[in-house]
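Researcher: Next sequence.
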Amino acid sequence: MADSVSPLRLARPYLITAAVFLGLGVAGFLLGQALQINYLSTLLALGGAGLVLVGTLFLLSGTVVLLIATLRSRSG
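Model: Next structure:
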């Protein structure tokens, strides 16, 4: 009798990676927004803009990994 593997078990590494990417994305995005709101210096505002950009990239990559996890769990 063949052992069947749960689709969620196949997608678990992808889901963990997506959770990390999405968490980093949200943290970077929120920290960047906070630095942009606090107009102490131009350098902080530029750093905030950079963090928003990096946070957005992490959010996008987390979304892509979630899509891969969904496809992987359906095909398994």
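Model: Residues 61 and 71 are 15 Å apart (CA to CA). Residues 22-75 form one domain.
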